[in-house]
């Protein structure tokens, strides 16, 4: 990038978090998959960058970029218990993690300043329920990696992110064809989040399925978006895997046989049948559309974990995970 | 009085119409002996964005006849009518126009579109556009763009680049600040509670100041420090209306910034030849709040 110093923060560079991503579209895809909520919690740590959104205290979505996916990644803070360490700056924060809340739409608007699908272009095509369904299943839309400006030559737009240890001065810098955009994004105190990962891990995982995303994408495209709940039946016996939807338009059921080559692995100890609010499942579809593989796990109390594997390029992958709590038995429409 | 012509460059007139339509509902066109001018009423200037134009008549018309007591005919009409007429003439074999003769200010500009019918026979379509002939006393009052006292002038970068960035910025805030210096740097900026975004363009061309045309004593602002940035704050929709002219693929656009006052953009049409194909001038006022 250009040598001109665009940073507006006065914090010296070696006391700031810095991450350099070669292709901003990598981050845009992740954020769009989380854009059903207005605000996300961002966690910066030595291991990478995480974004978490929570829905109605019953569901959580997490998108993660590991530090090795960045060309440069600096988290120069060393929390030390040694109070006598002379190299420690006592008045400075030495966090293990930098956590703050940020507006996702704003973030995506900045990251797509030089082009590429935006969150707003998504909404405008989503006016008609049928077209929004198509949107989720059209992975080609999500595969426009590095579509920067400059007459359609596929040069990826790089991104540089910096941040002060207290979460202030969160800045994004993007460049294409010698045009530089700098964004100072406002950050807020993070909201309290549920520890749904522990809620999931606490109980035994009863079923685990890994499958290519294609079948799930077409299964979901069959589901009427006016559905109120989705049920998942997983069993070591037939029908093995059944997805049903129930709502105003009636009921629909899709079975998936165990023995075809789209199911990469299938482990199921007991038969389980849980229902989930459609409004909590629906947001997964963007991540599903961008993914090549999906892992579905359900634990003993029905908490559903769906992990979507996204291929960033020919060698790198990352994951978006959704954790969803089941509807209580009495709320079931049956 | 007589006005009649055959349109030879419907595409160009349609583009002009489309750009003008964004800015103003009613236009005044001056049909002069060699040039067509687009003009605006003086009162309209400071309240909103304005577009002026000048184009050689022979770029648009052939068999161009203008006969009147003075050398020009001034007509005011609703842009929507002209756009509609032009759009229906897109596939035409011939489009011509003629000013019909009724007395008084209210006249009709008849646009005749000849299409090739399916049977091979020509089909004629007529659009009658109500126009008001602007009387000479009023015509004298019509505003021709005058040089405003600006501090910075600079050649804009590629309009499609500015346009796509500005369209993204529109999602962020209703006003955009444009600043530039004579060292070739232009900055587009929007600010909202959630974010502050600046886009920097460097190494832009700065038209040389012709000292035979500009006196340093009269225009000291132009000769000051090249690092000095002049800024103007615009309604982002005004700026997008101007950016609509990217459809002309102009050969250059000179941006003149009169800080806290206005922006004037000189859009030069044509390919890269020296030929004078005409120019449009946009006036975008500074918005204080």
UniProtKB/TrEMBL annotation, chain A:
Superkingdom assignment: Eukaryota
GO cellular component, one term: checkpoint clamp complex
Keyword hit for S-adenosyl-L-methionine: no
UniProt keywords, alphabetically: DNA damage, DNA repair, Nucleus
One Gene Ontology term from the biological process aspect of the record: DNA damage checkpoint signaling
Gene3D superfamilies: 3.70.10.10
Signal peptide region: none
Protein name listed in UniProt: SsDNA endodeoxyribonuclease
Top-level taxonomy: Eukaryota, Fungi, Fungi incertae sedis, Chytridiomycota, Chytridiomycota incertae sedis
Automatic annotation (TrEMBL), chain B:
Highest classification ranks of the organism: Eukaryota, Fungi, Fungi incertae sedis, Chytridiomycota, Chytridiomycota incertae sedis
InterPro entries attached to this UniProt entry: HUS1, HUS1/Mec3
Organism per entry: Rhizophlyctis rosea
One Pfam family here: Hus1
Biological process annotations from GO: double-strand break repair via homologous recombination; meiotic DNA integrity checkpoint signaling; mitotic DNA replication checkpoint signaling; mitotic intra-S DNA damage checkpoint signaling; nucleotide-excision repair; telomere maintenance
GO CC entries: checkpoint clamp complex; nucleolus; site of double-strand break
Top-level lineage group: Eukaryota
Subcellular location: Nucleus
Keywords of the record: Nucleus
Main location: nucleus
Name of the protein in question: Checkpoint protein
Family that this chain belongs to: Belongs to the HUS1 family.
């Amino acid at each position: 990038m250009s040598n001109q110093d665009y940073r507006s923060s006065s914090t010296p560079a070696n006391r700031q978090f810095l991450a350099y991503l070669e292709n901003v579209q990598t981050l845009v895809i992740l954020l769009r998959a989380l854009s059903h909520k207005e605000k996300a919690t961002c966690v910066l740590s030595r291991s990478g960058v995480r974004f978490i959104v929570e829905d109605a205290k019953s569901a959580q979505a997490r998108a993660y970029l590991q530090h090795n996916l960045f060309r440069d990644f600096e988290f120069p803070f060393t929390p030390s218990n040694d109070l006598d360490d002379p190299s420690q700056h006592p008045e400075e924060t030495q966090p293990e993690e930098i956590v703050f809340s940020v507006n996702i739409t704003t973030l995506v608007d900045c990251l797509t300043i030089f082009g590429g699908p935006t969150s707003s272009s998504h909404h405008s095509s989503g006016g008609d329920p049928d077209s929004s369904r198509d949107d989720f299943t059209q992975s080609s839309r999500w595969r426009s990696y590095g579509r920067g400006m400059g007459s359609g030559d596929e040069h990826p737009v790089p991104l540089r992110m910096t941040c002060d240890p207290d979460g202030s001065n969160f800045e994004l810098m993007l460049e294409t064809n010698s045009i530089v955009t700098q964004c100072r994004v406002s950050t807020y105190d993070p909201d309290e989040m549920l520890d749904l990962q522990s809620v999931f891990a606490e109980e035994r995982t009863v079923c685990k399925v890994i499958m290519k995303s294609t079948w799930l994408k077409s299964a979901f495209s069959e589901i009427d978006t006016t559905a109120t709940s989705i049920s998942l039946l997983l069993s070591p016996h037939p029908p093995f895997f059944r997805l049903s939807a129930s709502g105003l338009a009636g009921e629909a059921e899709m079975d998936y046989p165990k023995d075809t080559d789209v199911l990469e692995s299938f482990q199921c100890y007991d038969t389980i049948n849980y229902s989930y609010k459609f409004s909590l499942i629906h947001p997964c579809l963007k991540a599903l559309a961008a993914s090549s593989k999906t892992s579905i796990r359900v634990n003993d109390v029905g908490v559903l974990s769906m992990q979507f594997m996204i291929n960033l390029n020919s060698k790198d992958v990352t994951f978006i995970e959704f954790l969803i709590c089941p509807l209580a038995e009495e709320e079931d429409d049956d | 009085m007589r006005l009649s012509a055959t349109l030879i460059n419907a595409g160009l007139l349609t583009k002009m119409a489309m750009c003008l339509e964004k800015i103003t509902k009613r236009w005044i066109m001056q049909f002069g002996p060699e040039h067509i001018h687009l003009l605006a009423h003086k009162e309209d200037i400071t309240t909103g964005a304005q577009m002026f134009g000048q184009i050689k008549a022979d770029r648009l018309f052939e068999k161009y006849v203008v006969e009147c007591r003075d050398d020009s005919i001034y007509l005011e009409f609703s842009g929507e009518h002209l756009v509609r007429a032009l759009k229906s003439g897109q596939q035409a074999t011939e489009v011509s126009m003629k000013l019909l003769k009724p007395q008084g200010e209210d006249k009709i500009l008849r646009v005749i579109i000849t299409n090739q019918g399916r049977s091979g026979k020509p089909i004629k379509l007529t659009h009658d556009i109500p126009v008001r002939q602007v009387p000479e006393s009023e015509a004298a009052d019509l505003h021709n763009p005058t040089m405003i006292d600006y501090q910075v002038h600079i050649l804009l970068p590629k309009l499609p680049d500015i346009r796509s960035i500005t369209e993204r910025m529109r999602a962020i805030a209703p006003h955009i600040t444009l600043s530039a210096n004579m060292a070739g740097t232009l900055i587009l900026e929007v600010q909202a509670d959630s974010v502050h975004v600046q886009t920097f363009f460097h190494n832009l061309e700065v038209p040389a100041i012709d000292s035979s045309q500009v006196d340093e004593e009269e225009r000291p602002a132009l000769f000051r420090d090249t690092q000095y940035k002049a800024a103007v704050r615009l309604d982002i929709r005004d700026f997008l209306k101007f950016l609509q002219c990217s459809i002309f693929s102009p050969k250059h656009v000179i941006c003149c910034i009169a800080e806290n006052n206005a922006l004037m953009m000189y859009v030069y049409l044509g390919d890269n030849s020296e030929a004078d194909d005409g120019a449009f001038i946009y006036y975008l006022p500074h918005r204080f709040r």
